[in-house]
TrEMBL record:
PROSITE patterns: ABC_TM1. Keywords: Cell membrane, Membrane, Transmembrane, Transmembrane helix, Transport. Pfam families: BPD_transp_1 (PF00528). Belongs to the binding-protein-dependent transport system permease family. This is Sugar ABC transporter permease. Gene3D superfamilies: MetI-like (1.10.3720.10). It comes from Sphaerochaeta associata. The keyword Electron transport does not apply. It is a multi-pass membrane protein. Residues 1-202 form the ABC transmembrane type-1 domain. The chain crosses the membrane at residues 26-47, 130-151, 180-206. It is found in: Cell membrane. PANTHER family: ABC TRANSPORTER PERMEASE PROTEIN, INNER MEMBRANE ABC TRANSPORTER PERMEASE PROTEIN YCJO.
Length: 213
């Protein structure tokens, strides 16, 4: 959900077709082109408790008391990996939202301005209802990528500490590697059914909210 909310906000900020916004879009979209395993290696260095960039930055800000072992402290490990996933996927959500925003006729906003609608009101009553299809797509893809996430966890914590970051994909991988073939097959089937149930449920619900232009 975080990647969709941030992606939508960024899309609103860079939707206008200017050279400056083209550069911003490219920068925001760039992380999605990085291999998840390479991304895990990059964030391993960022989160390193001894000489990582994050703790070094906190030192520069004289906030050394906030330094943590971000990946191997059970209080922060899952959140740290989630931030990594959000950072990589937000640009993709933004691109989908921009496509939806640019399909909205400008006449709707002109009429709203004449009626005195605020920016927030225009987003709530015009933008969001008219990009339900884009919201539908981003939610569906986010659910699939979230449930299937593997390399980011495997490349950083491998499910630790104390299984705090264990996800279905790493659990399946470990079960298969330990020779529990039937068990791992059951996990794979459960993952597939879970993705189908969630995506079809959300897609079916949001389709009832779509508005034809």
């Amino acid at each position: 959900m975080g990647k969709n909310v941030i992606g939508f906000i960024l899309a609103l900020l860079v939707q206008r077709q200017t050279r400056f916004n083209y550069v911003n879009r490219a920068i925001i979209f760039l992380p999605i082109t990085i291999s998840p395993l390479v991304l895990a290696i990059i964030f391993l260095s960022i989160y390193n408790p001894t000489n990582g960039l994050l703790n070094a930055f906190l030192d520069v800000l004289h906030l050394g008391n906030l330094k943590q072992d971000w990946l191997f402290d059970p209080r922060f490990s899952l959140t740290s990996i989630s931030i990594m996933e959000i950072w990589q996927q937000t640009g993709f959500s933004m691109a989908i939202f921009i496509a939806g925003l640019q399909s909205i006729p400008k006449d709707f906003y002109d009429a709203a301005n004449i009626d005195g609608a605020t920016t927030i009101q225009q987003i709530r009553y015009i933008t969001v209802p008219l990009i339900i299809q884009s919201i539908n797509v981003t939610l569906m893809l986010s659910i699939i990528s979230g449930i299937k996430v593997f390399a980011q966890v495997y490349g950083t914590t491998n499910g630790g500490p104390a299984d705090q970051t264990q996800v279905l994909s790493t659990f399946l991988y470990k079960s298969f590697g330990n020779g529990y073939l039937g068990y791992s097959s059951a996990v794979g089937l459960f993952t597939t059914l879970l993705i189908m149930l969630l995506t079809f449920g959300i897609v079916g619900y949001l389709r009832t909210k779509e508005i034809e232009l």
